[in-house]
Amino acid sequence: MTGMNIPELIFAFVLWLVGLFVLYAVVRFAVRHAIEDADRRRAAERRQRGA
């Protein structure tokens, strides 16, 4: 093998999965807030046009 024993490999894999999940959560949070912001802007534009 590469000199790593099984517990080290498992720890590295779990750490990698945690990092991947954190990245997924950050991207999901950013996209959700961007969509909400776009909806707010669209609603404000509709109100201005209607007035």
From TrEMBL:
User: Any idea which UniProt keywords this protein has?
Assistant: Membrane, Transmembrane, Transmembrane helix
Residues that span the membrane, as ranges: 6-31
Q: Which domain of life is it from?
A: Bacteria
Name-wise, this protein is Uncharacterized protein
- Species this protein is from: Micromonospora pisi
State the taxonomy lineage: Bacteria, Bacillati, Actinomycetota, Actinomycetes, Micromonosporales
